[in-house]
Amino acid sequence: MNYKETLNLPRTSFPMKADLQTREPEILAKWKDMDVYSLVLQKNAAGPRFILHDGPPYANGDIHLGTARNKILKDIIVKQKTMCGFHAPYVPGWDCHGQPIEHEVEKQLGGDRGDFSVGEIRRRCNEYAMHFVGRQSEQFQRLGVRGDFGNPYLTLKHDYEATNVEIFKSLFLDGLVYRGRKPIHWCPHCKTALAEAEIEYEDKVSPAIYVKFPLLDPLPGLEVEGPASMIVWTTTP
């Protein structure tokens, strides 16, 4: 069925009635069978392009309220642009690396983690991530999100990793990569480095004090009459 044929579909194809728990999946299945995503891309092929660069969710579990809201809001934007005549393809993706996935796999291994090689743990992380790529893909589509779910971008694909290496090389050749000194947070439990965003500080109430340091000699340019001091404030003294 092409786009013009869809215009001739009877308006009563999906009559409004209750039992949405049954009707809604039927409607979504009908749209998927029609391949509405490809049809709207064909319709707007000559229109101005609009690309939404979607920061991917972690493939480390079922979707939750946060990931659902994120994806639905982006889907609304893409569909609105499509209705305004833009050629707006949407390619979903998943972050398949990182501590959240490793942490879930290590919980499955329990105290036996030390009995597995690094290669075996990575293989299990790969399987775990791909499992939830499939799960989340089904769940997002169940919410009505429309896109090229048959060809998502995954950070564990070799061509994706190769592109990262190429970009890093170009940054290095441009002199933008250098060696310096920076504190790295380390998790003794997970035995891995942590990003600053992963650090959570416990609330703590401590006394605060102001301290006055008298100046032994006047500072150049600081013209005051009589003794002068520097004031500092600190907590957890």
Verbal overview:
The chain is mainly alpha-helical and 237 residues long. It has a domain of 119 residues: Rossmann fold. Helices cover 42% and strands 10% of the residues. The strands form 3 sheets. Strands 1-2 form a two-stranded parallel sheet. Strand 3 and strand 4 form a beta hairpin. Helix 5 crosses helix 6.
Mean pLDDT across all residues, rounded?
Answer: 88
Distance between the termini: 75 Å
CATH architecture assignment name of the domain at 35-153? 3-Layer(aba) Sandwich
Q: According to CATH, what is the class of the domain at 35-153?
A: Alpha Beta
Query: What's the SSE pattern?
Result: HHHHEHHEHEEEE
Q: Note poorly predicted spans.
A: none
The count of helical stretches stands at 7
Shape, please? extended
Count of beta strands: 6
